Amino acid sequence: MTQRGCVHKNFDGVAKLSPRHSFVGNSWGSRVAEGVLKLLLLSWFSLGCLFGPARADAMATSLRVMSFNVWTADNSTDGQSGIAAAVNAGQADIVGFQEMGRRGGPTITSTLSMNYDSSSMIASVYPIIDTSLSHGVLVEIAPGNEAYVFNVHLAHAPYGPYQLAGIPYFDGALYDPNEAQDIAAVVQDQRDARGDAVNSLLLEMEPALGSGLPVFLTGDFNEASHLDWTADAAAAGVHSADVPWPTSTAIAEAGMSDSFRSIHLDEVAKPGNTWSPVYGPDYINEGVHEPQDRIDFVYFAGLGVTVTDASTVGPVDSFSDIAVADFPSDHRAVVSTFSLPGCLLLGDFDRDCELTLLDWQVLLENQHADLTGLQPNEAAARGDLNSDFQINQDDFVLFERQFDIVNGAGSFAELILEVPEPSSAGTLFLFCATCGFLRPIANNPSRRVRWNSL
Questions:
Q1: Is the Cβ–Cβ distance between 263 and 310 less than 8 Å?
Q2: Which of 20, 187, 234, 438 could form a disulfide with 433 if both were Cys (CB 3.0 to 4.6 A apart)?
Q3: CA distances from 370 to 19, 253, 367, 398, 448 (A)
Q4: pTM (2 d.p.)
Q5: Residue 320 burial by Cβ neighbours in a 10 Å radius (0-12, 13-18, 19+)
Q6: Can you list the domains of the chain with their CATH numbers?
Q7: Residue 347 pLDDT > 60, yes or no?
C-alpha cells in the first residue's frame, strides 16, 4: 500500500493574538490629525480624475488545481506518459504531486510545458517566483497578481479506516467503530501521528492565509475527512462511524475549504473516493473488503476565491469522473476549478484592481477593530495585512509600501508632502466629490470627514 502525506495548523484551534492598541490614538488631537489626513488623501486622489488611477494587470479568472499521488510511476517511460496523460485529461494549471522522483518530475513537467519546483513537487503553467517556503511556492498568475500553493504528503500510518475495519497495518491498534471510547482513541492516534506536521504546516501558511490572496493546499493526507465520515454516511453504510478526523478539522478551522465537498455536498451520494483504483471495494484485505475513502484533497482560501467544479481523475471505471487509459497510480487524482477575482493586490480591500482612498479608509475605519475569532481572510479584508489579527502601525507601513509599488515609487510620500493651501483644499474637495470619490463617505456617516475639526 502506498505511503501517504503531511499538514499544519493548530489541532487545538487557530491561535489568535489579542488586538493591541493601534498607533493612531483616540485623543482629540489625533482625531484632528485623522481629519486632516483624510482631507489630504481626498485632495491627492482627486487628481486621479484627471490622470486615472493605477490599475493592476488583468489576470486569468479561472484556475484548475490538481492533487496527484503518482505512486513512483515516474520511474518508467510508460509511467511518465500515464502521469502526463492524467494531468492533460484534468486540464490542470497547477499540480501538487506526491511520490514523484527527483529526476522524473522535471522530465514530465517539461513535457507538459510546466514550471516545476522539485522540493515541493509543485508544477505550474504560471511562473513560480518564490520557492523559499518549506512546503509551498508563490505563483505569479499575472504581473503583480500572485497565489500561494502548498503541497504535503502526510504520514501513512496509522491509517484510521483500517483501524476501524480490523485490518492490521504497521502495528496500528484496532478499534470497534460502535464504541465511543474507540472513536476517541482512533482520533487521538491520528493526532499523535500527524499533529506536529499539521501544526507546523499551518503555522507556515498563516501569513499566506492572512494575506487575502488565493491559497491552495494539495496533498495525500493519509487520513479521512470529517466531512465524509458523518452520521448520515454511517447510517447509509458508506462508512462505519461518525468520526471527527483531526487533520481535516484543523485545516477547516484554519480557514480553508475542501473544494470537492464544497461542490458535492452529499457525502453519501458522491463519496469521491481516491483510495483506491488498484485496491477497489472487491479487494479482500486481511479477510475484509478494502475500505474505500477520500484521502487526497485540494483545499482553498482567499478573498473572492470560489470553487466551480471538482472531479476525480482515474482509470476507466465507474468511480472516476475523468477517465484515463493506462492510469498509472494507486490513488485517484482530484482536480478542482476555481474562479478568481479579476486582480489580486495586497491592500486592495474592495477588489477593484486599484489602490485608492477607499482602501486606505478601510485601514482607518478598522484601526481599533476587535478581530478576535475571525478567519484569516476575514481579518485581511478589514485591513490586517500581516496576519497578526491586529490593525496597527505595521499594517499601515505595509499599505504604504504596496501603494508605492502600484502607484509609483514615492507616491505615498508625495501624498503627504503635497499639502494643499486651505483655499485650494476646498476646490479639490468639490472636484473630488464631482468625480464620485466621496459618495461612499456621504452615504455613510461613520466615514464622513470631521470638517469642524479642521
A1: yes
A2: 438
A3: 6, 19, 9, 20, 22
A4: 0.73
A5: buried
A6: 28-56+347-453 (no CATH), 62-339 (3.60.10.10)
A7: yes
